[in-house]
């Protein structure tokens, strides 16, 4: 996969040289190219922003440098990229969207600063490229670079060969499959006892069927407790009797029996 990022702070993306994404780049699984937006300015101050029409606080990123930068990048290939613009006003970025992006051969990111990019840029490229305005959460950052790091890591780890154990993707929270719509439950490793805290006995039992059931129960409990809006969506799914018992226990904790551990 090719990933291009146009930014006034290309140095912000140094973390993409380390960990899984850095290894993927070294293996040639990810081709990440950084571009300094100011290279497409033509004044002595290398200006990329100006005051907003209509008044109001803050500054808006000018369309001219963005247009020239995007034109220069997309001219390098005959097949256009998917243009992704992080913004709090975009559609939510989810695991489903990450899986969608992971199927793309080329992603181009346009992270904004200040009050955002002049909206004519999206209007210009909408008919020519697939333009996605996406949000990583209901909060505002100083700029879109942090959101790009989040998206690139979420997408990059889904690419074939990036994770050492491909099964890890299937077990992710929000991943499609048997655990779809559920948060991942608690995880443990050696030693079996640490500072008086014991690993649940069922995980040491060797009973894989019982372990799978326990993990699903814990995922249901965690989802209902921490993300009730996700648990509410489970009502339309094919939940078995045990699933419904667990969810009812979380809803009515005073009536819940002790959790099974063996």
Automatic annotation (TrEMBL):
Localization in the cell: Cytoplasm
Main location: cytoplasm
Ligand binding (S-adenosyl-L-methionine): 136-141
Residue numbers spanned by region Disordered: 242-262
Class of enzymatic activity (EC top level): transferase
Keyword terms, alphabetized: Cytoplasm, Methyltransferase, S-adenosyl-L-methionine, Transferase, tRNA processing
Alphabetized Gene3D superfamilies for the sequence: 3.40.1280.10, tRNA(m1g37)methyltransferase, domain 2 (1.10.1270.20)
SUPFAM superfamilies according to UniProt: alpha/beta knot
Xref: InterPro entries: Alpha/beta_knot_MTases (IPR029028), tRNA_m1G_MeTrfase_C_sf (IPR023148), tRNA_m1G_MeTrfase_TrmD (IPR002649), tRNA_m1G_MTases_N (IPR029026), tRNA_MeTrfase_TRMD/TRM10 (IPR016009)
GO BP field: methylation
Catalyzed reactions: guanosine(37) in tRNA + S-adenosyl-L-methionine = N(1)-methylguanosine(37) in tRNA + S-adenosyl-L-homocysteine + H(+)
Enzyme Commission number(s) from the entry: 2.1.1.228
GO molecular function: tRNA (guanine(37)-N1)-methyltransferase activity
One Pfam match: tRNA_m1G_MT
Domain (tRNA methyltransferase TRMD/TRM10-type): residue spans on this chain: 1-231
Keyword tRNA processing: yes
Subunit relationships: Homodimer.
NCBIfam families noted in UniProt: PRK00026.1, trmD
Family from the record: Belongs to the RNA methyltransferase TrmD family.
Protein task: Specifically methylates guanosine-37 in various tRNAs.
Name of the protein described by the UniProt record: tRNA (guanine-N(1)-)-methyltransferase
Organism: Sphaerisporangium dianthi
